[in-house]
Amino acid sequence: MFNCDVFRIPRFDTCRGGPYHARAMGNALRDRRTPADLATAGQVIEIAEKIGTFRRLAAAVEHDLGALPAATLPSEWRDAAVTGRLSFGFADAHERLPMLEGRVSVTTDAVCQRCLEPFKLPVTAELRLLFPGEGGASAAAEGLEVWELDEPTLQPLDLVDEALIMAMPLAPMHADRALCKVAAEGPVREAAPSRPFAGLRDEMRRKN
Fold this sequence. Notes:
Layout: H1 4-7, H2 35-41, E1 44-50, H3 55-65, E2 81-90, E3 98-111, E4 118-130, E5 145-146, H4 156-167, H5 181-185, H6 198-207
Parallel strand pairs: 4-5
Antiparallel strand pairs: 1-2, 2-3, 3-4
């Protein structure tokens, strides 16, 4: 019979029939760390969340869908899957300029601003962000968007939240006009004035 006391093999659990004690693991998407820490660790985050996880995005979608009659309101819209991948590293050889590259996608329920009917809106955001470090923004920033932070740490979830909102069209409409009632019935009228994502996008542009 194998005897742990003899071989003294380090383990997380116990050899005497007790419960398994796994080392606590955080959620990299929700953890707050500095960009330099994330870059040094070469942090890679695989995203598989629901739209309801992203507070501001969910609020904007909810506001948009609030214009619909209760009978046509899509059910379980908060369960739409947000998927993607984030990868942290450095943009320079001296490791002074943390950067993030990634891609996130979601297919959310929205209201067509042409026919005012609900439809599925695919949204994809490409992230190529540079976080100014000791050397500030430099030639290494070419092709990257400089992302200023209000505090030393960041939560990757917030970056995804903002990126998806920024990628939302100001006036969502059916991409296939054959599926849009107004476009199918006659001349296209001007888009409705409701622009559910415009305010959030303007606020984020001012912030960054």
